[in-house]
Amino acid sequence: MSISIRSHRGALSLLVAIATAALLALAVPPPAADAATPNWTGTWKITSLASGKTGTSLAARQAEPDFSATYTLSTSCSWFGCTAKVTSGPASSNPTVPWPPSYRWTGSRWQRDFSWQWDCYQPGAAKVWKPARSTQYFTPQSATSMTGRWTTTISGGPCNGTVAWNMTAVRVSSPGTQCTVCT
């Protein structure tokens, strides 16, 4: 019976050591920000190049102008990665698009994946709302510009299929500056 008690004590000691190491890891602050740390902070003009939509959905063939808006983002990083969150700017006209947007750094780009309801427009008929799943991403081209894409899969209804378009993001200002389009 003493063998069983020793093995339980050993297991308990191991669990205590693992828990202590985990608590110490959480207590240590994340690495300091440097040039390699992703950062999407500041005010950015984001443009959706919707006039060039592609895909299998009826929505991809419907004419739509390009549109842009200015957003302020703030980046925070932890041991679990970096996230850039919109802190101000206009919300989507579609009330089912999650607000405010939050993008995670994947190692090469800022990306968000979300579910919502596509509002399929049909001339002379009421809009048809159907489930949709989207991925938006922005890949840095420099410290002041990014290129990206918005891809959506619409499940059901007359707009069933895929629709995608390119996007751009250009820094308008960063914390501590007042530039009108940073270069």
Would you kindly provide a written description of the structure presented here, covering whatever features stand out?
With 183 residues, the protein is of the alpha+beta class. Helices cover 16% and strands 49% of the residues. It is built from two helices and eight strands, in the order αβαβββββββ. The protein has an eight-stranded antiparallel barrel. Strand 6 and strand 7 form a beta hairpin.
Task: Write a concise synopsis of the structure shown.
Helices cover 16% and strands 49% of the residues. It has two helices and eight strands.
- Biggest β-sheet: strands ordered side by side in the sheet: 1-2-3-4-5-6-7-8
Unreliable spans are 19-35, 177-183
Approximate shape: elongated
Per DSSP, the total helix count is 2
Oligomeric form: single chain
Q: What is the SS-derived class?
A: alpha+beta
Distance from first to last alpha carbon? 75 Å
Radius of gyration: 23 Å
Total strand segments: 8
Helical amount among residues, as a percent range? 10-25%
Order of secondary-structure elements: HEHEEEEEEE
Instruction: Report the sheet with the most strands, covering strand number, pairing sense and barrel closure.
Output: 8 strands, antiparallel, barrel
- Average the pLDDT over all residues and give the rounded result: 84
